Amino acid sequence: MFEPIRNENLRAMKVLVTVLPKPSVLDPQGAAAAEAIRHLGLTGVGRVRIGKVIELELPDSTPDSEIHRIAKDLLSNPVIEDYSISK
Amino acid sequence: MFEPIRNENLRAMKVLVTVLPKPSVLDPQGAAAAEAIRHLGLTGVGRVRIGKVIELELPDSTPDSEIHRIAKDLLSNPVIEDYSISK
Amino acid sequence: MKFAVIRFPGSNCDQDCVLAINNLPGASADFVWHKDTSLAGFDGVVVPGGFSYGDYLRCGAIARFSPIMQTVKSFAASGGTVLGICNGFQILCESGLLPGALVRNKGLHFVCKHQSIRVESTNSRFTRAATKGQVLNIPIAHGEGCYFADDATLAALNANDQILVRYCDAQGQINDASNPNGSRENIAGICNETRNVFGLMPHPERACDAALGSTDGLVIFQSLLKN
Amino acid sequence: MSAITPEIISKHGITPDEYERIKSILGRDPNLTELGVFSVMWSEHCSYKNSKLELKKFPVTGPRVLVKAGEENAGVIDIGDGWAIAFKMESHNHPSAIEPFQGAATGVGGIIRDIFTMGARPVFSMNSLRFGDIRGDSQQSATNRRLFEGVVNGIAHYGNCIGIPTIGGEVYFDDSYSGNPLVNVFCLGILKHEQIARGAAKGVGNPVFYVGAETGRDGLAGAAFASRELTEESKEDRPAVQVGDPFREKLLLEACLELLASGCVAGIQDMGAAGLTCSTCETASRGGTGVEIDVNLVPKRETGMTPYEILLSESQERMLVIVKKGEEDKVRAIFEKWDLPYAHVGVVNDDGMMRVREGDNIAVEIPARQLADEAPLYSREAAPKKAPEPLDLASVPGADPLTALETLLAHPSIASKQWVWQQYDHMVRLGATVLPGSDAAVFIVREADKILAASTDCNAIYCKQDPREGGRIAVAEAARNIACTGATPLAVTDNLNFGNPHKPENFLQLREAIEGLAEACRAFDTPVTGGNVSLYNESPAGAIDPTPTVGMVGLVEKPEHITTQAFKAAGDIILLIGEPGDELGASHYLLAVHGRKAGAPPQLDYAKELAVQNAVRDLIRQGLVKSAHDCSEGGLAVNLAESCLSGNLGAKTEIPGTRADVALFNESQSRIVITFAPRHASEILDFLKSRSVPHTRLGEVTKAPTLTIEATGKTFAWPLEKLRTPFEKTIPSLMSWEK
Ligand SMILES: Nc1ncnc2c1ncn2[C@@H]1O[C@H](COP(=O)(O)OP(=O)(O)O)[C@@H](O)[C@H]1O
Ligand SMILES: [Mg+2]
């Protein structure tokens, strides 16, 4: 019911959707992380941005267009975020 | 303050640290997302895990060992999360 | 006037809204479950605060797909009154009923406190009982209340007089020091172009009883009840 | 199945004697799963084997007690008009040391479940926290800051999301907690008398349901983990870390309350420490029945889990529900409405056994009562008592009061905790009428139309110097805080945080503190309704200071009685109720200004304390008092500074005494400062005289924003801004990443 039972005949793939804040959006978490990294003694750190990554197990047959639909409608908010997909 | 000034003479690279909950650790966000994805009509979705991604601008010369140190000590909690690094 | 207070899984200011509204003469409120699809018999909708679906993924991202939200959209499209408070504001933005988005507070922490906001426009059914420039003391309680919209959207919001309330200090000054979360232009709440949908981060329902330190939230509900 | 070797037995924390006992209960050797089951049920965390004999010293009865300590998940107290409250405190110290955010979050989740398991709707939470010093650049203080930040975030995350306001608490910083923070969380719920739910498996033949999150391998045997010292290797105890899901718990809470209201439930029990094991054998033991379940039917998050893993898992947000036979469909409908996983996993039977099947195989068969209630009990060796060395005042150089007050206000333990409570949603549910930052929190419980006051207290320096006196004072101070709001104390929950009980000096502290608490609870007529014991709080540096935290709840009769600490109006008279005092031992002044934890703590006199508290409460009820503030850490000077700052008004005062630092900063007990309008002066003074309550007029509230204190003929003055900065900015600036 909750962990969907996947049909074991279908081959599954892992898809990674990476969602990062748009450059124009304030990213205080990224700024705080940059500061903390400097505190840990790593010099020369430039901009740090923090986003989300969503790892999906999907049937091999899932069309790319469907993955884009989900990434755009649900996993990211185009007003503030950009996403990219990797398999 | 927020946007550190980088030394423009140093070449910079982008490093992506991906932090995901360990497989045995409960991931309520992932479970909720999986449910929502199914609602959106994408069938056959297996496990979904949600983590964070940290995009770092670092000097080209930063040794890998340093990146690992930061990823382990600061960006992730090894007790519940695994990280991976890609450039 | 009868209000529907939508209950999503994870809503937690739903009861507070019902209590506050039922205490107003001439108003009443009832819960509507997120799996329902009808708003028949209601004159207005409140999308309350809380953590719908745990705020997982993004605040409001999952709630927007709830069955009731389709009905709320058509209710709004036909001119119905929709008020989104806190998480409700986030849901309205995610649903596209209001422009922009709410992101992590600049200070990174959840902030719960009394906050002054200034009424920027009384040209709405939500603020018509107030006076322009009036400073209201209304609590905020959010971790992701930093309002963001791109420059073009902001310009349009200003041009159309859609910014109904801004964060300010007790004297009504609007500046960085009086901005609790980093919102662009200190925006605390906006309405849509047709002025029947209003979302705000502060909680007017928490400012309707003197025992809680402020009754300034009443003016928003009184605006709605005023003919 | 592999044979049970002595190594396996000792890895389970079972002693050879205990193993013999297990064999005699079973009449055979246990299998590995059964050994695991015994090990968690007989861990300190679940069985209280090292503390139970001491806990029996607490007063647990009273006219208002509806459910006694130990009977159920939480005690229940009558508050009148058919309403009752259930409240309790619980620790999550060790999990928070390993993963502060999740450790604290799941602590909150656990205590909330304890409350709604009783049939009560949770209405507010509090927390009592201890960390090592957060000042300075050392690695250790950086770690302490990370723990502090993570714990507060975790509490905020869980409490805010589930929508239960966190309205109060306390935070202290002391190096004895470095590496071993204390995270004690409190929750209170409201219910009607007839709604009290029982954690008993009643009714042979009744089906047993599992509801809530799927079981995973997380938190395997956390109860056993909480019953050991923290070591470097503990960091490797990875499975012990659980992740909380407040969203799930919110659904579970609403579903369970709906379920209990439906009348379909014969018994209900949360799965906290020791998960499925504890909930099955405890419900069977309480019901005088047996419970049989099949682990194959349990909803699981992972594949290939063994019965051992399923039984010992401490996955969060799960409940066991004993359903009245025939009502299964109604129950299913409620779980489905709330989108919760559930399964019919077993049945109540009459043979007194906890029996666990894995399909056709029997994995566990143990007499439930012996497992749940007959754990071995130990009275450990206590070191001989020795009285604390009294403080030699001559050894304390008199510091400049001007800088000393600023130093005290800048001590993280005294400085404002706004940074903490502003992260907690304390306003949801429309009840917080006295917000955090005053003495006790005051909360309007809307559904019952009742007003409650609540406070958590423990001064661990006192307890370190003299655990008995420290225990007494913890109760007295909680009662005093409650009295200052205008409320009458009702009852107490406690959380006993101590070191390893096998060390005689630690066991002595435990025993002494319990006896002190027990005595004071009798004196204030506040029975103990339940609590928690957390032992083995040690880090490589040694045991923590003994910290027996008290959570007290009181009742405010009428809204107009609610009183806060803030000064209200210029011209009001400032009056000290109680004696000026002169005890400097174990004070924060000694610690913050002289770097010493020394001397005997102040001595509490119950008669004086009660006279002061009763007088203040009675004056408040006569409508004569504008502000009331109890004197604690930092003495009168800190007390006056706090009332000035929260009211944004000055004060012009004079404090009697022969040595300025003693006069300003002593921590003698039984003192409350009140203010009132000058026109009530004679009425108030006459009243105090008639009661023979000592009092001293200190001065008056001023519009000018300066605190002025005259002592020993000298005048000390602080513009409020000089006090506000250390008080309000210390913690935010220590915790800011923008350095
Ligand atoms: N310090 C204490 N004082 C009084 N009662 C206590 C104390 N510690 C534990 N108890 C009681 O012992 C019983 C068992 O508690 P506990 O094991 O903490 O419950 P849970 O299983 O919910 O953790 C409870 O009724 C609790 O209130
Ligand atoms: Mg319990």
User: Average pLDDT value of chain A?
Assistant: 88
Write down the oligomeric state.
heterotetramer
Rg from Cα of chain A: 17 Å
Name the biggest interface: A-B, 45 and 44 residues
* CA gyration radius of chain C, whole angstroms: 16 Å
The CATH architecture designation of chain C is: 3-Layer(aba) Sandwich
How many helix segments of chain A? 2
Structural class of chain A comes to alpha+beta
Number of domains of chain C: 1
The name of the CATH architecture of chain A is 2-Layer Sandwich
CATH topology of chain C: Rossmann fold
Q: What letter string, H or E per element, gives the SSE order of chain C?
A: EHEEHEHEEEEHEEEH
CATH class of chain A: Alpha Beta
Class from secondary-structure proportions of chain C: alpha/beta
Kindly report the spatial arrangement of strands forming the biggest sheet of chain A: 2-1-3
Reading off the top of the CATH hierarchy, the class of chain C is best stated as Alpha Beta
Q: Percent range for helical residues of chain C?
A: 10-25%
Task: Give an overview of the whole structure.
The complex is a heterotetramer, with two copies of chain A (87 residues), one copy of chain C (227 residues) and one copy of chain D (739 residues). Chain A is built from two helices and three strands. Chain A is of the alpha+beta class. Chain A has a three-stranded antiparallel sheet with strand order 2-1-3. The relative contact order of chain A is 0.31. The model of chain C has no long low-confidence stretch (mean pLDDT 97). Chain C has one domain: 3-Layer(aba) Sandwich (Rossmann fold), CATH 3.40.50. Chain D has 25 helices and 28 strands. Chain D has a seven-stranded mixed sheet with strand order 8-10-7-11-9-12-13. A seven-stranded mixed sheet of chain D has the order 23-25-22-26-24-27-28. A six-stranded mixed sheet of chain D has the order 1-2-3-6-4-5. In chain D, strand 17 (488-497), helix 19 and strand 18 (528-534) form a beta-alpha-beta unit. Chain D starts with 5 loop residues before the first helix and ends with a helix. The model of chain D is unreliable at 232-238 (pLDDT under 50). Classes of the chains: A alpha+beta (87), C alpha/beta (227), D alpha+beta (739). Chains in contact: A-B, A-C, A-D, B-C, B-D, C-D. The B-D interface holds B 1, 21-22, 24-28, 32, 77, 79-80 and D 98-99, 102, 213, 216-218, 235, 238-239, 241-243, 245, 247-248, 301-302, 315-316, 738. Strand 2 (48-59) of chain A pairs antiparallel with strand 2 (48-59) of chain B, so a sheet runs across the interface. The complex binds adenosine-5'-diphosphate and magnesium ion (MG).
